[in-house]
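**User:**
Everyone, produce one record:

**Assistant:**
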Amino acid sequence: MNVRVRDYMILEVEHFRSTTTIREAIAQLTKSRHHGLPVTDEGGRLVGFVSAKELLRHAADGEMPIAKIIHPGTYTAHPETGLDDAARIMFRFGLRDLPIIDEHGKLCGVLSNLDVVRSHFERASPMKADTLKRLLADRYALPFSSRRGLVPISRLTPTQWKVFEDELEGRRYELERGFAEPVLVVQKGDKWILVDGHHRALAAREMGLTQLQAFILTCDRPEEFATKETGFERLANEHHLVTVADIEIDRSSHHPLIEVTTQLLRRFEGGSSANSSSTLP
């Protein structure tokens, strides 16, 4: 899969004009979530990048235009640059954000390190979909196809009866920042069976979202598939799961991953010795 920067870059870029004063730039940056912003000339061409440190270093010269303090030029990429190549540039030079320019040198986007993380989440999901597609084809001796699309949260039939509150909070954080991976769904007639992504689906519902990005598996011979009861459907029936609202939220214990991590932290914080015979709680 040849993924390009244009597939993940942010198009609406907050930036400074070279005529912006240091005082104005500090005020703008203070209100944003960024640690620095690209700088353009009047024609929209990228001329540099200014960081919070550089602005604070010259805070006493508040009325000076930032063009006077920026270093001309900066690391950049083009929309057609491979995403992995852009990620290497960011890693090599310790960049949080990489300005993207077009063939005329005009600022047309920005790629953040969160966008790179999001791309890895999303590229991992097709492997899950392919694995499930093969399992379904082998189990029911029927051909299946997969596609990417939106699914209605209210019509999802869950197959997991419990989720953990701490993991749910993590999924809310990911959704708010736009890098949650798509859920995995099997469409069977008018049913949307949720196979993977229950924390994401419930978090999205609580946030007021009505749709989620998903990898959707469908049978190429739907009439035959409709006559077969899947293990997913049996599981949902056994636990009386109709919608994601039926999923129990466990607020008394940690998600297994969080629990193990917490135990390891306790071990290190409490100190461990080769002679210790104590076990983790």
Notes: Residues 113-140 form the longest helix (28 residues). The chain has two domains: 5-115, 142-257. The mean pLDDT is 85. The CA atoms of residues 144 and 220 lie 5 Å apart.
